[in-house]
Amino acid sequence: MQKPCLLSCFFFVVFFIPQISFSCPHDQRQSLLEFKNLLTHNIANDSITDQALRDLETWKPNSDCCEWELVRCAARSPSREVIDLSLFNLVPQSGSVSSSILRPLLRISSLVTLDVSLNSIEGEIPGDAFVNLTRLISLDMSSNRLKGSIPPELFSLKTLQHLNLSWNLIGGEIPTEIGSLVELRRLTLSSNKFNGSIPSSVLKLTKLETFDLMNNSLSFEIPDSIGNLVNLSTLYLNMNKLSGGIPSSIQNLKNLQNLTIEDNGLSGEIPTWLFGLQKLKILGLGGNKLQWNNDGSVFAQSKLTQLSLRSCGLAGNIPDWLKNQTALNILDLRMNRLEGSFPKWLADLEIREIVFSDNRLSGSLPPSLFQSQSLNALVLSRNNFSGQIPETIGQSSDIEFLVLSENNFSGSVPKSIANITRLKLLDLSKNRLSGEFPRLYPYGLWWIDISFNEFSGDVPASFGSGPILLSMSHNNFSGEFPQDFINLSSLVHLDLQHNNISGNIPSFISRLSSSLEVLSLRNNSLKGSIPEGISNLTSLKVLDLSENNLVGYLPSSLGNLTAMIESPEGSCLPLVCYMARVNIELQDLAVNWKKSKQGLVNRNLYLYTLLDFSKNKLLGEIPASLGNLKSLKLLNLSNNDFSGLIPQSFGNLEKLEGLDLSHNNLSGEIPKTLSKINVLNTLDLSNNKLTGRIPQSPQLDRLNNPNIYANNNGICGMQIQVPCSSTETEPPEEEDEEKNEEETMFSWKAAFIGCSCGFLTAVAYRIGYSNL
Ligand SMILES: *[C@@H]1O[C@H](CO)[C@@H](O)[C@H](O)[C@H]1NC(C)=O
Ligand SMILES: *[C@@H]1O[C@H](CO)[C@@H](O)[C@H](O)[C@H]1NC(C)=O
Ligand SMILES: *[C@@H]1O[C@H](CO)[C@@H](O)[C@H](O)[C@H]1NC(C)=O
Ligand SMILES: *[C@@H]1O[C@H](CO)[C@@H](O)[C@H](O)[C@H]1NC(C)=O
Ligand SMILES: *[C@@H]1O[C@H](CO)[C@@H](O)[C@H](O)[C@H]1NC(C)=O
Ligand SMILES: *[C@@H]1O[C@H](CO)[C@@H](O)[C@H](O)[C@H]1NC(C)=O
Ligand SMILES: *[C@@H]1O[C@H](CO)[C@@H](O)[C@H](O)[C@H]1NC(C)=O
Ligand SMILES: *[C@@H]1O[C@H](CO)[C@@H](O)[C@H](O)[C@H]1NC(C)=O
Ligand SMILES: *[C@@H]1O[C@H](CO)[C@@H](O)[C@H](O)[C@H]1NC(C)=O
Ligand SMILES: *[C@@H]1O[C@H](CO)[C@@H](O)[C@H](O)[C@H]1NC(C)=O
Ligand SMILES: *[C@@H]1O[C@H](CO)[C@@H](O)[C@H](O)[C@H]1NC(C)=O
Ligand SMILES: *[C@@H]1O[C@H](CO)[C@@H](O)[C@H](O)[C@H]1NC(C)=O
């Protein structure tokens, strides 16, 4: 009797107890294995992050799931249930998994925290599967691609304290039932598609500390009784469609640290009691219809770290109550009517990001500004600052973004600028700076725009290999095209137009960056012929060599400019794409065109694939290979000495919107193939020796301005109401055609300016976008 007992006791101790008391429940292990199985077998292998593969490797069928990576069990018996799952970033951005993959996990009813963020999960939240999670305290499903609305079952999770659904595609109205999650401390619904109003039931969530609704399409007035949420420390409502004013009950939120309500339609006065909130650190009010109606007597009790009063109607001097805001990191007073000078006390505050663009500030910059060890971004564009750039500039050891464009700065740029080792972005465009441009510290530069100044001397060229944009247009640079440019291996945009660059276009031009998309050498003094090798620049979309003294034939290799053959329709502005790609570095930046954010949306402008060789002395036949460039939108060969026929192949330029062949020696008939181009809306064939009938097509028939065909050798057609009969000769045109010609061409020259110079010179930067 005793032996079997001993034996069974032995077995019980050695095998049974560990199974029951110290390892996770069998069904929970099965659920986890099922999840692993779904994840690893239903999606392509390269859709799992390497780290996830390593971690999931520990999920072995016959082991204790409490020992697995990413899993945490309750410390105590009787059975060690799974309580935490940290399953974030298993599936990379490029992958995708269905939300049904969550179902096995949601059967683990002992869960206390569940984090499945950053997993490219698609589909609706499987609401029904949540019903048994009665102990859940923290649920993070952020940064996926979940859609639909919030399922009602989520509101039965009464224990929930943290809910993060941000960065998904969840929409509709926020349901009233949200008010039943009375334990909520942190509610994060930002960057989704929520619309409509906010249910008044949220005012029942009195334990809320973080309430984040930013970047949705919500339209409501901030409720008067928002002050009931006494424990609120963070309220992010920015980037919605809120209206109404700032309710005074916000004064009751004594714990409030972060308040951002930027970019809404809020109106009314900015109450100064806001600055009496002692704990307030971050305050973003910009981008509303709010007005600053204050005489300057602000007794700030708060010690702000970030303040945005962008477009808040601030007038007069930079308010001097900011003097005791000694903890300021970011100060954004963009787009106001501030005037007067840059105060010295402000320069001494050691602020990290100063954004004062679009005001009326004037005078010179205090030298001590650059002695700050904190200054990282200085954006002063579109003011009326003047004087020299202070010699101290080289002492700003931390500055990365220096934007002084569109002011009145003059004199030379101090050589000490070479001592700024962290400089990434330098925009000095549209000032009156002169002299030679000094050397810059060549490592880490990313964007250099010194266009529209009076710089002279040899074209500066030692910028390291980093820059993606280099614009030195509209200066007096001279000398030859520098060989050092071939070191700029990341270059996307090179604009040297309107300078005095001389010599030939060198053959090493073929060795410029293979990512070069824009090359403008317009209006210089270049001579010689166009090198064959230019066709090696296979990313080029804009090539402008016009207004030089180029001679010889147009190389037929131009027909090999790949990016002009297939330029992906609908792709975005290259620099913007680039910025998105390197988003870790540049997330605080956005390019604005023409002072408005619209430019980003209107990125198609950039797709103006363009070849311009006009106003040179090129001769010979136009190579038929140009007809390969199917994505070309604008082709200007005017004011040269081209002869022979217009190539039949031009009919293949199906996207061509503008064609200027005027002022050449072209002869023969206008090819009938041109009638295939459906989008052609600007055409100039005047001042050649063309003959015969104008081809007919709905598009060509609309181009009926006689100037298009003027001064040729007898062109006829219904478009210009010259009947094609036996008589060949036409009445001679009058001399003042030139003016009209300028007018017709104006529209697409403007388009070019829009695409290339527009965003070169009108750069604005959003600093601290995600926080303000
Ligand atoms: C993933 O890789 C494993 C082994 O390398 C293979 O057995 C499995 O079929 C692959 N799965 C898919 C979806 O390609
Ligand atoms: C919830 O628990 C009940 C009882 O254990 C079970 O019958 C039901 O299937 C569970 N529901 C889900 C969605 O897991
Ligand atoms: C919510 O999720 C986002 C994205 O994953 C994250 O950045 C944020 O810190 C989270 N917020 C809270 C309050 O947990
Ligand atoms: C706003 O949310 C949308 C969609 O969720 C996202 O694509 C976008 O990047 C967000 N914008 C910002 C500025 O956070
Ligand atoms: C919210 O968006 C949905 C579509 O996503 C739409 O049907 C509904 O009318 C919108 N509601 C409001 C109040 O705009
Ligand atoms: C606010 O927070 C404090 C401290 O965490 C807590 O004692 C208090 O109960 C909270 N107030 C409400 C209304 O939940
Ligand atoms: C306020 O914002 C800052 C910066 O984003 C953050 O570090 C801090 O935790 C926030 N405060 C609260 C109470 O969430
Ligand atoms: C700032 O100065 C005002 C008086 O001008 C004073 O009342 C307030 O306490 C000061 N605030 C801080 C944060 O020092
Ligand atoms: C800019 O400042 C200069 C003096 O430096 C002044 O002559 C000019 O009128 C100002 N321009 C504007 C628009 O205020
Ligand atoms: C750069 O800094 C060094 C050391 O601080 C100094 O000696 C040098 O003169 C500076 N260079 C320029 C051009 O100001
Ligand atoms: C053009 O590129 C090819 C291949 O990259 C290279 O072999 C050739 O030498 C280049 N041509 C010129 C003129 O640089
Ligand atoms: C264009 O490229 C093709 C192959 O890429 C080559 O065979 C051809 O010679 C090139 N044409 C010209 C004109 O350079």
From TrEMBL:
<keyword id="KW-0433">Leucine-rich repeat</keyword>
<dbReference type="GO" id="GO:1905392">
    <property type="term" value="P:plant organ morphogenesis"/>
</dbReference>
<keyword id="KW-1003">Cell membrane</keyword>
<dbReference type="Pfam" id="PF12799">
    <property type="entry name" value="LRR_4"/>
</dbReference>
<dbReference type="Pfam" id="PF08263">
    <property type="entry name" value="LRRNT_2"/>
</dbReference>
<dbReference type="Pfam" id="PF13855">
    <property type="entry name" value="LRR_8"/>
</dbReference>
<keyword id="KW-0677">Repeat</keyword>
<dbReference type="Pfam" id="PF23598">
    <property type="entry name" value="LRR_14"/>
</dbReference>
<keyword id="KW-1133">Transmembrane helix</keyword>
<keyword id="KW-0732">Signal</keyword>
<keyword id="KW-0675">Receptor</keyword>
<dbReference type="InterPro" id="IPR055414">
    <property type="entry name" value="LRR_R13L4/SHOC2-like"/>
</dbReference>
<dbReference type="InterPro" id="IPR001611">
    <property type="entry name" value="Leu-rich_rpt"/>
</dbReference>
<dbReference type="InterPro" id="IPR032675">
    <property type="entry name" value="LRR_dom_sf"/>
</dbReference>
<keyword id="KW-0812">Transmembrane</keyword>
<dbReference type="InterPro" id="IPR003591">
    <property type="entry name" value="Leu-rich_rpt_typical-subtyp"/>
</dbReference>
<feature type="domain" description="Leucine-rich repeat-containing N-terminal plant-type">
    <location>
        <begin position="26"/>
        <end position="73"/>
    </location>
</feature>
<feature type="signal peptide">
    <location>
        <begin position="1"/>
        <end position="23"/>
    </location>
</feature>
<keyword id="KW-0472">Membrane</keyword>
<protein>
    <submittedName>
        <fullName>Receptor-like protein 46</fullName>
    </submittedName>
</protein>
<dbReference type="Pfam" id="PF00560">
    <property type="entry name" value="LRR_1"/>
</dbReference>
<dbReference type="InterPro" id="IPR025875">
    <property type="entry name" value="Leu-rich_rpt_4"/>
</dbReference>
<feature type="domain" description="Disease resistance R13L4/SHOC-2-like LRR">
    <location>
        <begin position="154"/>
        <end position="339"/>
    </location>
</feature>
<dbReference type="GO" id="GO:0005886">
    <property type="term" value="C:plasma membrane"/>
</dbReference>
<comment type="similarity">
    <text>Belongs to the RLP family.</text>
</comment>
<dbReference type="GO" id="GO:0030154">
    <property type="term" value="P:cell differentiation"/>
</dbReference>
<dbReference type="InterPro" id="IPR013210">
    <property type="entry name" value="LRR_N_plant-typ"/>
</dbReference>
<keyword id="KW-0325">Glycoprotein</keyword>
